[in-house]
Predict the structure.
Amino acid sequence: MKAPLPMRTFRAPGRVNLCGEHTDYNQGYVLPVALDMECRAAAAPAGDGRLTIDSALLGPGGSYRVEELTSIAPRGDWSDYPFGVARQLALAGIEIPPLAVSITSTVPLGAGLGSSAALEAAVALALTQLAGRELPRLQTAKLCQAAEREFAGTQCGIMDQFAALYGAENRAVLLDCRSLEHRLVALLAGMRIVVVDSGVKHKLAASAYNRRVSECAAAARRLGVESLRGVSVEDWPALEPKLPDIPRKRARHVVHENRRVLAFVEACARGDAGALREIMRAAHRSLSRDYEVSCPELDFLVEAALEIDGVVGARMTGGGFGGCTVNLVRAEAVESFCAAIAARYGQAFRRAPRVYCCRAAAGAGEVKG
């Protein structure tokens, strides 16, 4: 009797975006960091002819015969993300073997930290590796993005999937979402990343997120460009009057946010903490006022953070409508910052936020040992 094939485990990190929010689906610039929070997919061959994906953390998953994967339909729950990936792989001609896959994750759900992309990337690696295939990372990122857009129903850009696959220790990833070229960026020396979860949950597949995508597309059509990436800060004053109020506000955010990403990278290179502070504050105000994806809790967390000693910068991060803020804090002030921001938020909203001290981590891969 043959010994059963061993289980193999694959991990993919969550991410926090330092600058460049809602620019990825507008073919703009983003600057995410892969985090030391991760989703794991443990996969073992199964003898029942089915792909079964389950999770004690997330709830019941699902099971399909492998020959049916190209024709499955969404169920409207978390399993749409991994099964959407399986469907995309099958449509790409990859013969997925019968497998039992178990999902665990330390990425907070619904907090704007890329939990769905981490799930997609971990499952994509598990399925391709156990199918005996080695896909280029860019192709994997595109397949995961397609799964989220076409199966799970969120019209997302490619930032989250790209960060999950291309992240690097102690580095951010500067990604041009039009060319898909990227480079790694060293962060400011002596600075730490602290994520504060407001506890307000959002659902990225909800209509508000997809409506922003549509509003930006409408603005681009009115301006005669393929995407808002085609509009520079210098062009904006002449083009702004051509847009109605809502598309104008959305476009104004995207146009200036692209410039802010490049300014952020330049500030890191010259060690300019003051510039980072102003860039992040301007980014948050734009997301709150022009893009209208913030909420009272996030606005409070940003303004409160900027009053605490040792904070370099703060802003909301992720799709919005709740979720988290990202804070750049000097290393020696992290402990006092965490205590102070928790106390201020608790006093204002009568509940404690979750606070995560994070580091930039490597992208997805197999867990060895």
